[in-house]
Task: inverse folding
């Protein structure tokens, strides 16, 4: 199993590309085949497959081939891990602002 | 001004490195000098400065030099943009699950 830091590296890396974000957004609306994922993107099917591989390696997406069709799903747990990392940092920062506010209120001038 | 997609590219790219995440986490606790940022990291000061440049280009961090000391701050607005992108996708996905749940409840068997 990947440790959490490597998982975050791969997840943020996967999200750092606009086409991959379009693919994740599409999959958040429901499973899709590779050609459905390719439809809104101005790129070849092999290029879409390469992006899909990056998304699968990051754990954000999984796919399964049934017959001749590969169907892709979003992995919500992985998306939540990335969200949680950012959320915890924002809370740190907001707590610091609260402390600053209290300090300023208790120490006027 | 960067458009929002480019901003997200650069932000997720900036977060896709464990040392840069350590720097962001440190700055969420309050401003720090470059050498304070370097302290927990096993790397040279020039390497830290390079990471800092990636963070500044992404808009996540800004720094200002006063006298001989460069002080770095986190830009909470930028962090919020990344959080918001993920949060909106998760909501899309959860709404889909809700619709599925309702459909299954209304269509037993």
Result:
């Amino acid at each position: 199993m990947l440790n959490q830091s490597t998982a975050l590296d791969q997840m943020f890396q996967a999200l750092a590309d606009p086409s991959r974000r379009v693919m994740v957004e599409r999959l958040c609306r429901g499973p899709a085949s590779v050609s459905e994922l390719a439809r809104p993107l101005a790129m070849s099917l092999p290029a879409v497959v390469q992006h899909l591989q990056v998304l699968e390696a990051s754990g954000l997406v999984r796919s399964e081939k049934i017959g001749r069709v590969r169907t892709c799903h979003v992995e919500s747990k992985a998306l939540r891990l990335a969200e949680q990392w950012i959320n915890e940092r924002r809370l740190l920062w907001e707590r610091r602002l609260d402390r600053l506010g209290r300090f300023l209120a208790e120490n006027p001038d």
